[in-house]
Amino acid sequence: MNGVIMKRCILHYDMDAFYASIEQRDNPKLKGKAIAVGRGVITTASYEARKYGVRSAMPSVTAKKLCPELILLPVRIDYYKKLGKKIQDLIQSLTYKCEFISSDEGYVDITEYMKKYTPESFIEKFKNSLYKHTRLTCSVGLGYNKLSAKLASDANKPNGYFIISSREEFHNYVKDKSVSIIPGIGRKSLEPLNNMGINTVNDIFNLTKNNLIDMFGTNKGVRIFELVRGIDDSEVDYISERQSYGQEETYSRTVDDIETVHDTLLHQINKLTEKLRLDNIYIKTVTLKARYSDFSTITRSKTLNEYTRNSDIIYTTALTLLSDLAKKDSFRLIGVHLSHIAKRNYVQLSFKDLFK
Ligand code: TTP
Ligand code: MG
To answer: Is 105 an annotated catalytic residue?
Structure first.
């Protein structure tokens, strides 16, 4: 990467043949074999099967024709998701600036680590750690923004890595390749481009911004203009350690009436769940804090089985914690704190959150 110092350094990881690799890991007889996971349609295929042209979203009948020895396995989706969550927990324990896109893919802002590591040594540490804990391999891309990192993680699959450290390197990497290589340019945009004889990224460079706006409208036109030039200022959407979800109320008098405490809690929890919604965050632990007229302070926590931001669930939990307190009078302060926080695509949600 020519010793270029990046202002931002973003890592994108993507597990290799995720569902198929899990099956091969769990059953040594499947190692090195052409396997696919799916029933009517293939979800994914091992790299051995891909040599025959077997691909995701392909009907299994077609896959079997292409590769008669293909071993087709049923989908164990809950199990794969559980492993995906384990991987996310592990990555989050390495560095908190992460945004998970799906069970097998995510971004990590590793800018601050570049003082201590070279990009190569960080990638090695990241991949080794993931392998040590899961016995699964991933591919990694390192870029100066999310777009270049995502593109780079596809460059040396499986179990490889690639670094794109500047717009210039981005340009050189993409210019002669098919437009479909650019993350964010979907099939819907590709079709009209291909129909006009625009196939490579270089072909798009010959179009002006206005040409693209005429074809796709302002938003999409400008977006495509920027994407092919490696421009993407979006941030890794992580949960800041400073993000805090708590509410406390100090009473101006001693409160003996439990109904008043209930009202306070309900009001606090409604405010907090509103904030959770705005930040698109879910929580798993509810902590109740109470201070009495003698200034003694007690906190009690309960961790739920599933993530939630449902006010009924949180309120009921807070009331249970309150009813467990030995002393239920002479309150001077009551408060609720929500912790163990996570983003939407990271979590197993409660039933109420899923179906509201
Ligand atoms: P991908 O990361 O797209 O594919 P992959 O991990 O199997 O292979 P690789 O990244 O090495 O190219 O998707 C992750 C998982 O999502 C995949 O293992 C199975 C599932 N999936 C589907 O169920 N249907 C699909 O059409 C695709 C593309 C993936
Ligand atoms: Mg993958």
So the answer is: yes
Whose atoms come closest to the Cα of 17: which ligand?
1
pLDDT at 308 over 80: yes
Per-residue pLDDT at 348 exceeds 70:
no
Q: Domains in the chain and their CATH numbers? A: 1-170 (3.30.70.270), 175-227 (1.10.150.20), 244-355 (3.30.1490.100)
Q: Is position 14 annotated in a ligand binding site?
A: yes
Indicate which residue of 105, 168, 248, 259 is catalytic: 105
Put simply, whether the predicted model's pTM sits higher than 0.85 gets the answer no
pLDDT value at position 2? 45
Long-range own/partner contacts, residues 67-71 (CB < 8 A, 24 or more apart): 67/34, 69/33, 69/34, 70/34, 70/35, 70/36, 70/45, 71/30, 71/33, 71/34, 71/35, 71/36
User: Is 279 among the annotated ligand-binding positions?
Assistant: no
Residue 130: DSSP 8-state: H
How close is the Cα of 272 to the center of ligand 1, in Å? 36
